[in-house]
Amino acid sequence: MADLGAIQKKILSFRNERDWAQFHDPKNLAETLSIEAGELLENFLWKTTEQSRNLTAEELKNVREELADIFIFLTYLSEEYQIDLL
Amino acid sequence: MADLGAIQKKILSFRNERDWAQFHDPKNLAETLSIEAGELLENFLWKTTEQSRNLTAEELKNVREELADIFIFLTYLSEEYQIDLL
Amino acid sequence: MADLGAIQKKILSFRNERDWAQFHDPKNLAETLSIEAGELLENFLWKTTEQSRNLTAEELKNVREELADIFIFLTYLSEEYQIDLL
Amino acid sequence: MADLGAIQKKILSFRNERDWAQFHDPKNLAETLSIEAGELLENFLWKTTEQSRNLTAEELKNVREELADIFIFLTYLSEEYQIDLL
Hints:
Four copies of one chain form a homotetramer. The longest helix of chain A has 24 residues, at 57-80. Chain A has helices at 4-18, 26-42, 57-80. Chain A is mainly alpha-helical. In chain A, helix 2 runs antiparallel to helix 3. The first copy, chain A, is 65% helix and 0% strand. The first copy, chain A, contains three helices and no strands. Chains in contact: A-B, A-C, A-D, B-C, B-D, C-D. At the C-D interface, helix 1, helix 2 and helix 3 of C face helix 1, helix 2 and helix 3 of D.
């Protein structure tokens, strides 16, 4: 398993190279978490709780990407407030 | 900084001691992320984007707790699909 | 059944008396809808889809209030863009 | 302005023709509201509150569609509990 600190540094470098920090006020970052959480939830919509345990490969791929997006924006928000997630 | 793997093990032990895994199907876990993201967003509601950079100590405390909740449920969902977040 | 136009006028009068329109930019109003939708969803969390059809009286009361809140903010947003919901 | 009762009957007929009511348990319907609210919010993301008052025609079209979707699912949920929205 890679190191969390190293990954978070990469995520923040990626942002700095694009000069995005100026747009990343907490209000907008909190909005992204709501939006991404909705996109994640969409993979389980119209399923029973039982069916949600059996996703197709396509759905599983989507879920992985949404989880990664949520983790990235969680990292940005933590950085904003100097919060150590761990 | 603590180790992510160690923290995630603690989160999962905490769950196992309470025998909660049976309720933690992905559909319900994805719902928690939407609900927690909404609670996080509530701290920024009626603020301008500028004002969102200046939270009170009380609001900041709430934000920290919501970020922690989101991280915990992200860990549960990752565990479900054997996804390494990093 | 009462008349939608009459109800919406009441909702808007209620707002005007409190001089709230100045805070009701679309970004904040859209945030309220996400937050309220999360609060609604909370009533169904950890339930199976079957269980969600059998709420307690207390839960049902909460659901009614959340649906009303969502309808009110939907009315504000529609007013902003002069959209006739019907 | 058309009549709310008449519109709601149309929405419910549309559903009955497709035999969708069986899937429309409250848990799934509440999920749709969270998902749609997230899609609505996406139109305002990365904007300041001031900018959110000036949408492009394309964005405005999206907003109208999301508001309509939210209204439709609000109608389904109200029907489930025999709630008169007005």
